[in-house]
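Handout, page 2. Input:
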Amino acid sequence: MEMTRYDHLSRADQFLGLPAPNLEKPVPEDGRFISLPNPAEISTPPLELRCAIESRRSVRQYSRDPLKLQELAYLLWCTQGIVQRREPYATFRIVPSAGGRHAFETYLMVNRVSDLEPGLYRYLAFSHRLMPIEIGPELTDRLMEACLRQSLVMGSAVTFIWSCVVYRMAWRYSERAYRLVHLDAGHVCQNLYLAAEQLRCGTCAIGAFDDELMAGLLGIDGLEEFVIYCATVGKKLH
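Output:
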């Protein structure tokens, strides 16, 4: 924290004339992609904002009912949906981010979502699609191990895993980026909580995880890109 004070910051690469990094990680040209329902065409139950805020709780036990693909698409849109692009410098999304830099990538560990095989996926916000990373129900065991044996990841319909590509933020804010990305994580997860309430789902944020195991699960280096936050989602028992 001390070294992220303004007195200690180095000059940001943006002001040194270096090019901006991409606002989304590249995808393989021959990858498999799953188109998601258009957010504008997804019908959701009405819920007053104050009611959603007052009823929000962390829920750790879920029913066995699956999430619908439309519901998952809505949750993804509410947490990282893009409403305006100003590439390569910024995107304006459903959630705020310092300078519009949006340093996160969203991964999903799917257990029970209609029309999706259990496994690990990545959300592509720019095209509102999913890309399968690895398919297989046994991956949830690895996630539970990485989350320090917290069983709620086994019972959830899906676990959101947000990684941070920190240079996206550091390009503009140098070392201060390490403060800002944690603020952004709070914005994203709170939106997930509130949107899940609208769908009569429960959510539980997870900050306790083994960083190296999480990086290995996602196939990232854990330094330039590291897991910053997780959250389980599932249908409520009552």
